[in-house]
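User: Continuing from earlier, I have the next pair ready.

Assistant: Great, send them over.

User: Here they are, in order.

Assistant: Folding the first of the pair now:
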Amino acid sequence: MVLRGHRSGGWPRVTMADVAREANVSNASVSRYLDGVVPVSEATRAAIVTAIEKTGYIRNDAARQLAKTTSDTVGLLLRDPRNPAYGAMHAELQARTAQRRLQLLTVASPLDFPEADERAGLRRLLQNRVGGMLIATGVIAPEELVPFVSAVPTVVLGRPEEHPALHAVCYDEVANGRLIADQVLALGHRDVAVVVPGRQVSVAEHLRSTVIVERLRAGGAHAVTVPTDHSVRYPADRSTSEVVKLARAGRVSAVMLPTDMRLLAFLGEAQQAGVRVPEDVSATGIDGLLPGLELLGLATVRLPVETLTRRGMDVLTDLMTAELISEHPHTAHHEAHPGDFRPGRTLQPNRS
């Protein structure tokens, strides 16, 4: 586990007018953006977000209003619950909030929904007077969350996060990427295809993949990167077809996918193409949370979802109890938890 602390106290005290001045927009435009009731143009939104990030503005009027009441409800913004990683997280959080005699109110963001819909989900949670919020999504940008953190105790859960204003309990994706890459290198694979999703698709998947590529190259392997701008889906997207072609041509002895869902998509398309796993090519994923994983025989890194949800709830309930909604400087709490390697039949020694 990695623990890190960040001071946010050096930021100047700024007002909404300062943000408007920095963004070169009206006070009303800033207010409309923060309230989320009346939409603003994309150009105005971008200017305001940049100004908030630059000035470090945190809206405190909502915090003072919410501080008048207390709530035993925890709000959760959750990305696509059909994904086993998010589904397992949701189930764990439901159990842990019940253990603490709290209620869990969930807003789910379906796959490929834009950030605007996730912001609207956060506003719906605030309108329901939640006592704290958990943000479990790999899409919405950190600066988009800053206006919410002073309104209610908030913890980012799962994805890597180092923004100095955001508390976060994360999976250690650097450790996870290195762990799975080391397993592939140890089995003699030196020509490896790696699917690399864009950061806008998933912060976690992007980091896992880039770390895998760096580790493979540091270990003397030739890493062939296959980029994708598509979210995880089954059946496969174009990137999956590309790695199948590489495997079929014998150009790589292993294929590394950043999630088990992408690995399943690869296995399906490889079978249709007559590419055998692991006889022709080895393959790995990351998540380890699919039901029946042992029967599937996937080589993967299992994410520590139980530890993550327990610590996330610990941090959030501490914040809720301490009532750390104030104008005073505070230290943002960051911690990261690595997973563990789960061997499977899809990863075997290089025979070439």
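And the other member of the pair:
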Amino acid sequence: MTLTIGEIETETGMTRANIRYYEQEGLLSPRREENGYRDYSAEDLVLLRRIRLLRALGVPLAELRALRDGSVSLSDALGERLAALGAEREAAARAQDVCRAIRSDGATFATLDAEKYLRGDFGAPVPPSDAVPRVACPWRRYFARAFDLALCAALWTAFLALVCRADPTRGRAWPTAISFLSLGAALLLEPVFLRLTGATPGKWLLGLRLEDDRGRRPSLAEGFSRTGRALFYGCGAGIPIYSLVRLWKSFSACRNGEALPWEDELTLTLRDRKKFRPVLLAAAYALVLAAAVLALLAAQFPPNRGDVTVAQFAENYNDLAAYAGLSGQWILAPDGRWTERDRSGGTFVYDLGGRPSDFSYQTDDGGALTAVSFAFAAGSGAYFEPPVARMKLAALAFALARRDVPLGAPEAVGREIALFWAERHEFSAGGAQISWEPSYEGCEALPDSAAVVPLDEGEMSYRLSFQMTKP
């Protein structure tokens, strides 16, 4: 048997808005026809009647979800409701006694002695029938927030590496910068998640939900205000030392059941305490970490893949040099020759030496590169560094342009060159043969420090021939 929304309204005595609300909250899932209309079953009708009864008894939405999921029994839920109703009844009885006493005394507002009537616990607040208990669970809340910030950090890491071409692993300032960027992203994104779903990814993973006593999710303005206060008073806005102090104070207050500075009429509820949620959080952490690592590995590959031309090789080289922070005074032009960087913007570029030696290229009939080589030479009186960085960049720009190269190949190529740059060596990568041969006169190499030093005060010279070929 199927029923329309109109028939469901008649049978349950509920308004269409109420029924739609319970659908949005996930308590009801009617079948949809191809035309988009909902078809309600007899089971949906029974479920809505149960929801209406329990809501009339004052059972909160969080308890309804737990009842539907089977994590709470009906007997336990009604036991808690009976206890709450008993407390309300006692508070109401005390309030009636106070009202009678005030009228009997003939007090007016101007002469009302509030302290007299507040004695005897008359001033204890009466909890609303649909109140949702405040969630303590400090560790659950902490890890939910930590996961959200870790997710923002992973997204920023990927964006900086893949789009901005900045290596977040290079330099001491990047971790701090990413931390503040993550706080900013959380401030902008969290209110949107709270408005749409009542939870953030971290809260959803750990079964937390933010809503008021009527089950209403926060508006964007409320979410923005709450998130801003939580990031400042709870996380210390990422400020060193202060953030640790704020985390400890917030943890202690939450553990003791105190209201936190960012909490108001919106209450954080716990949908369930199922044992799989910590496992789910650990798996999500692993996925986020893997995604960040994959982004960093992918960023080490050149932008042009496949059979590259001279111009594409030059673009690959310049891009990888910029990512590694090795862009100097000279960059490769589209014709593959070195050209001075444009300084019209007033940018100062420090360069240790003169113009680098040009690359030599060989191409096939279609213009695709088949070989790249260069020669390097330095003699007495000239300060120089062995071209280890240029060897690595050239290998990445040429040999690793193939699309079937594994993600770990850039690290392997860099390690191979770093280990054997000071001696004659040959290896293959990305289907290309890479080889070099150095020669020393009056000097020797220090492999560990990537330096060449003279043996005495006499003449010295250093030469290197480097080449890469594809079949």
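Worth noting for the second one:
DSSP finds 15 helices and 14 strands in the chain. The chain has three domains: 2-56, 141-298, 310-344+356-469.
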